């Protein structure tokens, strides 16, 4: 028993989803995504829930990755989604830019994030930070 106590095996589980939000949170995100025109077509709550569960069957086409990345980055900053969120988005082929309609790569998303952080504009914008604060209060 002493040996077992002193030799604990650590098992790290890789996260399979971005987040598990409640119905009110999903509705808030869905309304925000549609108001900001995140995607080329409006999304419903079921689609947003599948997005955060990483169970989408079809890639979402982003009108402008900047919008979605601001939300995901803000969620990441508040530890509401895992640190490896970019990998999860890429592995599950969840986002594609409207220009190419090909699922984004890790390098493309990381480069875009770096570019956005280095601009003189505030990143993420205040409205994204505020949405994430609202989501956090809904837990």
Proportion of residues in extended strands = under 5%
Count of beta strands: 2
The N- to C-terminal Cα distance equals 40 Å
Share of helix, binned: 40-55%
- The gross shape turns out to be globular
- Show unreliable segments: 1-14
Strand order within the widest beta sheet: 1-2
Rounded to an integer in angstroms, the radius of gyration calculated over CA atoms is 17 Å
Summarize model confidence as the mean pLDDT: 90
What is the number of helices? 7
Specify the biggest β-sheet: 2 strands, parallel
Structural class comes to mainly alpha
List SSEs in N-to-C order: HHHEHHEHH
Please describe what this structure looks like:
The chain is mainly α and 139 residues long. The protein is built from seven helices and two strands. It is globular. 27% of the residues are buried.
Descriptive terms for the model:
mainly alpha; 2 strands; disordered N terminus
Topology, pairings included?
Layout: H1 2-6, H2 23-35, H3 45-53, E1 60-62, H4 65-77, H5 85-91, E2 95-97, H6 106-117, H7 126-137
Parallel strand pairs: 1-2
Helix pairs in contact: 2-3, 4-6, 4-7
Summarize the structure.
The protein is mainly alpha-helical. The protein is 51% helix and 4% strand.
